[in-house]
Amino acid sequence: MAEDRIELRGLRVAAVVGVLPHERTAAQPLELDLDLHVDTSAAGRSDDLTDTVDYGAVCAAVEAVVTESRCQLLEALAEQVADAAFTVDARIEAVTVAVAKLRPPVPQLLASSGVRITRHRP
Fold first, then answer.
1. Which residues are marked as active site?
2. pLDDT tens digit string along 4-21?
3. Which of 7, 38, 81, 90 has the largest count of CB atoms under 10 Å?
4. Phi/psi of residue 47, nearest 5 degrees
């Protein structure tokens, strides 16, 4: 696996996700971070976008999946996000996805709740 990675931080998307009744009726803010494990050496030498992964396309694919999904669990949503990233560019060898609820449904003062997964290209 490539040691290089493209880091995408703080992608904010509103989505319906959760188990509680009020989470099933209204979108809530989520924040996503992705690490795309990809060999960036060709792009480093050429300085040409075609030699690397277009992270704008990855963000668009992720945003589409998140807004269309109605998962109950963040774990399931993270899996769908990883799958979406792999469809954008065959050069992505692995992806790490972190998904956080910015308003977790607990009575404590919790800044966020989330999951982080790493998946390798099937």
1. 101
2. 999 999 999 999 999 999
3. 81
4. 60, 35
